């Protein structure tokens, strides 16, 4: 602030003269207040006081010496009954309520009484790029030689001198600190060794469904440990392959897996490996392409799963094309004349009114096998 601004700021008469000048310019009050602050300093006068004198002068009352001490104390939003504030915040969506938390302590406490439920949160990080989305909002942090470029929903873009992960965490960490936060589906993909994200999630974290990819599969078990067993219904592991035998065995022993309903895994499983999925309502995995599919074994195993409703199996045709006639013959189905793209087979479960319906489709490089329990 220059010397003339300091003189104006210290003199009440001068401040009111500046306000009167803003009124005479006939600009909107907010623009006038911003210009006033730029002229005499940001802390020269609070907006409610500026507003009082602005409208007093605007209506032709130019008495600078008016005594405000006898005026009634103006009401603020904080004079509103708590029950009414709660009702108002109840009608806001999750994003609006999250922004409201930053206004002041009292409103923050009211906003935090509501659960913050997000439908979908996605985090992707590579060697030079971090993106995260919650519902319809998207944030991008792209590394360059001088720092990173930031793209947010509220601004087109801006630059930062900070590393892209460090800058991204400035947005991510407060998000995951929202009290009572819940996510219907959380997707995390770490293309590199992003150790900075290791302790991002609060423990315990409320999520119904997760999808996880990590360049380092040793992160799989620590990642899952953040979620509440039983509340986590669906798990998809995109990077963990059945060849990672030690980690896969640890996964099957986690309470998160044991209490899940739906699981999708990669890798080549044999028919006997299907016993691991006996607690699930549905699952997806790949069968070993180096061995023929033993449908008789599958028909022995799956009916013993008490919760099973459906499963999807995939089998790649690695070195040679495997015609569906092979599957039809194994299932005991008659092979129709001409080309064959889909076969359907129903297996009656012994001593039961239920059956398993097998639908096998030729997808070219692989075959898909969908099995549904029919009542």
Automatic annotation (TrEMBL):
GO terms for biological process: innate immune response. It comes from the Eukaryota. PROSITE patterns: FBOX. Residues 74-121 form the F-box domain. PANTHER family: DUF38 DOMAIN-CONTAINING PROTEIN-RELATED, UNCHARACTERIZED C.ELEGANS PROTEIN. This is F-box domain-containing protein. It comes from Caenorhabditis nigoni.
């Amino acid at each position: 602030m220059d010397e003339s601004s300091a003189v104006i700021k210290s003199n009440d008469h001068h401040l009111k003269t500046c306000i009167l000048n803003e009124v005479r310019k006939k600009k909107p009050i907010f623009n006038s207040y911003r210009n006033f602050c730029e002229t005499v300093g940001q802390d020269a006068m609070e907006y409610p006081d500026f507003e009082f004198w602005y409208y007093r002068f605007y209506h032709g009352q130019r008495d600078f010496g008016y005594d405000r001490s006898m005026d009634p104390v103006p009401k603020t939003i904080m004079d509103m009954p708590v029950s009414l504030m709660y009702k108002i915040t109840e009608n806001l969506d999750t994003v609006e309520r999250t922004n409201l938390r930053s206004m002041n302590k009292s409103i923050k406490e009211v906003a935090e009484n509501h659960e913050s439920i997000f439908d979908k949160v996605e985090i992707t990080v590579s060697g030079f790029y971090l993106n995260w989305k919650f519902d319809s909002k998207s944030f991008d942090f792209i590394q360059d030689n001088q720092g990173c470029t930031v793209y947010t929903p509220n601004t087109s873009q801006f630059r930062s001198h900070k590393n892209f992960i460090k800058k991204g965490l400035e947005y991510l960490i407060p998000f995951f600190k929202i009290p009572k936060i819940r996510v219907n589906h959380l997707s995390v993909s770490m293309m590199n060794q992003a150790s900075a994200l290791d302790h991002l999630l609060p423990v315990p974290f409320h999520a119904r469904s997760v999808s996880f990819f990590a360049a380092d599969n040793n992160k799989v078990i620590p990642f899952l440990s953040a979620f509440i067993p039983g509340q986590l219904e669906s798990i998809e592991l995109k990077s963990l392959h059945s060849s990672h035998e030690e980690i896969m065995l640890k996964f099957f022993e986690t309470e998160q897996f044991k209490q899940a309903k739906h699981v999708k895994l990669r890798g080549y499983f044999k028919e006997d490996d299907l016993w691991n999925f006996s607690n699930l309502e549905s699952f997806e995995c790949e069968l070993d392409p180096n061995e023929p599919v033993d449908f008789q074994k599958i028909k022995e195993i799956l009916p013993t799963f008490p919760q099973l409703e459906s499963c999807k199996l995939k089998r790649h045709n690695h070195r040679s094309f495997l015609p569906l006639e092979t599957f039809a013959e194994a299932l005991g189905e008659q092979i129709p004349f001409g080309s064959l793209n889909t076969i359907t087979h129903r297996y009656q479960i012994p001593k039961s009114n239920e059956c398993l319906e097998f639908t096998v489709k030729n997808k070219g490089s692989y075959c898909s096998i969908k099995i549904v329990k029919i009542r």
